[in-house]
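quick one
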Amino acid sequence: MSHQEDPAANTASTSPRDTRMDRRSFIGATSAVLATTAFALSQARAQEIEKIAAAEQGKSASDAGPENVAIRDANPNTFLPPATDHGEANTFWSTFSTAHRRVQEGGWSRQVTVTDFPVSKDIAGVNMRLTAGGVRELHWHEAAEWSIMLSGNARLTAIDNEGRPYVKDVAKDDLWFFPAGVPHSIQGLGPEGCEFLLVFDDGKFSEGDTTLVSDWLRHTPREVLAKNWGVPEDSLAGVYKVPQEGHYIFQVPLPGTLKQDQAVVSGSKALSDVAFDFPLPAMAPTYQTRSGEVRVIDSRNFPVSTAIAAAHVIIKPGGLRELHWHQNASEWQYYLQGKGRMTVFFNGGKARTADFNAGDVGYVPRTFGHYVENTGDTDLIYLEMFKAKEYQDLSASDWLAHTPPELVMAHLNISRETLQKIPNGKVPIVPA
Ligand code: MN
Ligand code: MN
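structure w/ manganese (II) ion:
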């Protein structure tokens, strides 16, 4: 663009070339033109949103072709997006309900990893069920494991980094955390076994690529294993009858009491003093308003959990998890109950809204603005999970209420009266 075509460039120029207009009147005229243009542009943009909203109500949005009605009807904010949605945003919605279930005698597992959910590079999720007695076999992995019990009861075993034993029973809504490389097992207890969610601090994590004790030892030469343990080779025949890739999940009888198991493992060593589990049901809310509750669990109150931070969020009907963002990590969500929607703002004019139901997974890239709204008539309950030592968030309301008002009003074209109504502080769930 030449100087002559660009009025903004001309106003900054001291060139005497333009003699038809003195500099002061030229600046005045240009400012008026710019103000008129800005007003016209803002009007046009307001109309843009109204036009999209109107189009969505009429023939422009009709849909005569083939349709997967069940999927469509579960995603109303995708089929008819808010008129404020715009541009190409990465898919940040997934679900366990379309993930392959690996079913074996003793239970099943299914997973959402970066393979099927490319936006989630930091975190992978696994949903697992074990029957009463069913075992997720003794194993460890490169990723750290955070978990919440969704239903039923289980017995955990592990050793800590000093080799001291840990055996504990967990129930619904209890959490646990096993650091990378710490070996552990999970066994479903009576009467109905259990189901739980596992969250790993690596999007590439796969349940098919963990170190299983039966897989490893079955692939160790028999004479080496005999020498390692100081036992005759023929006493090890059973090890080599294990399936090629180990047991993974298998059915065994129910264990004895917790006291019996704890007594038998302690032997010459004391039990571990590391709390690998966390009784979430006993925790008071970190934030509470009349519209909901937030419980923040991270290394500050669950010291073993140094790699994963969490928030357990309850939003009552009509409530909104306020506009906010997280400075230190991307957010991986798991929806436990209810119905909600979330808009993620992807910067540069891009925004997208998605609907969430129990069993669905959401993702918000690090620092991207978002809200979660309860769109159902029961409590919406979900988890915010972060690959981080500590939970962090900032509130849009808190920020704007603590910024010079003239500056905020000029940005948003709002009155002082409106600005003064914005909550003056962090209110995680509104209305307060
Ligand atoms: Mn594990
Ligand atoms: Mn969030």
